[in-house]
Design a protein that fits this description.
Helix 2 (35-44) packs parallel to helix 3 (61-69). This protein has a single domain, classed as Rossmann fold, CATH 3.40.50. The radius of gyration is 13 Å and the shape is globular. It has helices at residues 12-22, 35-44, 61-69, 88-96, 109-119; strands at 4-8, 28-32, 49-52, 79-83, 101-104. The longest helix has 11 residues, at 12-22. It has 121 residues and is α/β, with parallel strands linked by helices. It has a 5-stranded parallel β-sheet, with helices on both faces.
Length: 121
Amino acid sequence: MAKKILVVDDDELVLIAIKEFLSPLGFSVTASPNGPAALEKISGEHFDLVILDVIMPEMNGFEVCQKIRQINSYAETPIMMLTAKSGEEDKQRGVEVGANLYLPKPIAPKRLIALVEEAIK
């Protein structure tokens, strides 16, 4: 069965690009344009990995990550933050709210694929 990945980003081009990189490798990729929509998807099904942007309208990635971690079935699910906010304090906050990886954009497709494969072994 294909590993399921939820990608949350308000930039449609990022969602399309990540889906294009990962789908041919056999991953089932679901895109979500914002935090509230992502939380709704998470309540309806289980994902093996969540990739989150930080800067989004309505609810930022830190808030979404924190809410995901409050769901028992997601306590151990890898969460990767992929964001333009690359300051040390942002990385620290990402770790504090439960992210496993905090990566700066832009990221090379090969690196993203390697990190995704490693995260959901």
